[in-house]
Amino acid sequence: MKSSMIIIIFIFLNLLAVVVRGEIPTTLEGPFVPVTVPLDDRFRGHAIDLPATDYRVQRRVNGFEPEQISVSLSASYDSVWISWITGEFQIGYDIKPLEPKSVGSIVRFGRLRFPMYREAMGSSLVYNQLYAFEGLQNYTSGIIHHVRLTGLKSDTLYYYRCGDPSIRAMSEIHFFRTMPISNPRSYPKRIAIVGDLGLTYNTTSTINHLISNNPNLVLLIGDVTYANLYLTNGTGSDCYSCSFSDTPIHETYQPRWDYWGRFMQPLVSKVPIMAIEGNHEIEEQAENQTFAAYSSRFAFPSEESGSSSTFYYSFNAGGIHFIMLGAYISYSKSGDQYKWLERDLANVDRSVTPWLVATWHPPWYNTYKAHYREAECMMVEMEELLYSYKVDIVFNGHVHAYERSNQVYNYTLDPCGPVYIMVGDGGNREKMAISHADEPGHCPKPSTIPDQYLGGFCAFNFTSGPAKGKEWYICSMVMAPESGHVQ
Ligand SMILES: *[C@@H]1O[C@H](CO)[C@@H](O)[C@H](O)[C@H]1NC(C)=O
Ligand SMILES: *[C@@H]1O[C@H](CO)[C@@H](O)[C@H](O)[C@H]1NC(C)=O
Ligand SMILES: *[C@@H]1O[C@H](CO)[C@@H](O)[C@H](O)[C@H]1NC(C)=O
Ligand SMILES: *[C@@H]1O[C@H](CO)[C@@H](O)[C@H](O)[C@H]1NC(C)=O
Ligand SMILES: *[C@@H]1O[C@H](CO)[C@@H](O)[C@H](O)[C@H]1NC(C)=O
Ligand SMILES: *[C@@H]1O[C@H](CO)[C@@H](O)[C@H](O)[C@H]1NC(C)=O
Ligand SMILES: [Fe+2]
């Protein structure tokens, strides 16, 4: 089974143990000598996408009844976002966007199933994915609704129905539990962290495994649906760049997002999900627009956390302050994200949230050949700031493998540096990462690394940049305690 993909964190008062099926010592017992557990080669094969005919991805509502219902957190326990979609998407050569205002955005909620005496109103939008090229089909979404509930009590079960009562289109009754209050003795019991999920049969085993562990919160750290492994006519591939190399633009098949929203509803209508963007969410389209599906479909506590962007934000979950960062937009010291990060870090009160956890999609510390030192420009800009505020743990995805580092800063073991954890492959249809950069013949050539969306390339050769002068680092990382896969 693909159980290496999920890390469930159990937090007991001030002791944090990361458990990945079996006993792995905590970082406090380190630093450790690197250990690699090779992946069983039989797992290397491609995962198979759920087809449009699978019952879990079918539309099962009528008219303008809500579907793809999800809960997300706001910046603190007293508020959450409820999101859903009404109406049908269209894809083809003659699409007509729905009018977002034509369906109301209402949530009725309360601590009892009946009566649900409270009501909140929100807003709605529609997004388009357009391609100005002969033969390519355009997409327009159903009506996407986001409603923020406020004035909630901590660690409390709430029932809710969402929809538009004026047209008798309300959902069934769902429920969620708010986060505990923020203080050093108060934590969500279990947080599931997953990335690179996709929508394959292996994704379904990841999500089933996750559900069976009863998480209180799900973090999704980028690469969500892999809708961009498809052409607009619905033809998919396991490797887009090798299969459709002559298309005029990198196409997507946006209905995969709707399939994904339907598949996820049983989990995320109950358990809050917090998402941050990965490279598969870029989804370029006409007029250089990007990230339309990501930014439109998820709710983010951006305003509540002082960010004006869907690409970075922060929130509290009990005694943990989570910082979600964007790697595929500007991270430079003079940019908005960096300035926001400085303000956000300065506002953290460690006597209220002792744990400070940051996440973003592509890892800085990674010993695999895949994406080796790809995000180093972001690291050059931001590592010192995160270090100066003593971030405890960083979670990343992108590399389809699990890996945990010792505490490290500037390529050096450092008892005040964060622990970096790559959470492993969530089940998407691309291959898993197997080879390490320090294996004979596998050291990647720097020229093969740059990613055009990562805002530059800073590891020109493996003797410049932050690792300069650390000759051992040329395709070898001595600070990784255990790397590779746990089966
Ligand atoms: C992925 O799913 C297939 C069945 O669809 C299974 O044979 C395979 O072992 C799974 N891969 C992993 C890594 O769990
Ligand atoms: C899709 O939208 C683009 C941008 O508006 C437009 O140029 C193109 O003609 C549309 N394509 C189709 C097939 O309608
Ligand atoms: C989609 O387009 C590709 C490339 O033009 C083509 O090979 C494929 O047969 C098309 N698929 C369908 C279902 O039309
Ligand atoms: C899109 O980006 C390209 C390349 O950066 C640029 O040349 C072009 O002017 C842009 N188009 C629009 C509509 O902004
Ligand atoms: C990182 O280490 C290198 C040398 O090992 C040093 O030149 C550089 O100043 C350090 N950077 C920071 C931000 O401490
Ligand atoms: C490595 O990069 C540095 C700085 O860009 C450069 O001075 C040096 O010549 C490069 N070394 C090699 C072997 O390419
Ligand atoms: Fe990725």
Describe this structure in words.
- This protein has 487 residues and is of the alpha+beta class.
- The chain has a single domain (3-484), classed as Metallo-dependent phosphatases (Purple Acid Phosphatase, chain A, domain 2).
- The chain has six helices and 26 strands.
- Strands 3, 19, 20, 21, 22, 23, 24, 25 and 26 form a nine-stranded mixed sheet that branches. Strands 2-1-16-17-18 form a five-stranded mixed sheet, with no helix packed on it.
- A hairpin with an 8-residue loop joins strand 10 and strand 11.
- The longest helix has 14 residues, at 255-268.
- The radius of gyration is 22 Å and the shape is globular.
- Residues 1-21 and 477-487 have low confidence and may be disordered.
- Fe (ii) ion is lined by residues 222-223, 278-280, 361, 398.
- It is found in: Secreted.
